[in-house]
Amino acid sequence: MIIEDGFNNLVVLNRCKKPIVAVIRGMCWGVTFTFSSMFDFIYMSPDAYLVAPFMQSLQSPEGSSTYTFPKIFGKAVANELLMLDRKITAQEAVDLRFANAIIPEL
Prior knowledge:
single chain; 106 residues; alpha/beta; 2-enoyl-CoA Hydratase, Chain A, domain 1; three-stranded parallel beta sheet; three-stranded mixed beta sheet; 5 helices; 6 strands; 17% strand
């Protein structure tokens, strides 16, 4: 699947009948991070990290993140991620139950 534009991709992700698997290496930034909250399985390399720099770029949170992030991370962490541009490491993503596992060989 190729992610091209925001709203239509959210509809496609929501209607997809097959599991969606993400492999994240390095930086997962902005809309890629917010879209990944809709994936079924997420595997990360040890050096991967996630950041949604909405405040830094003077944008409002998007990509369904205002709905999915509080459900996944809880309100306090979701607010830090979306309003304080907090970066999380691969280990934190696993600990917060966002990612399934860290795979060193990626």
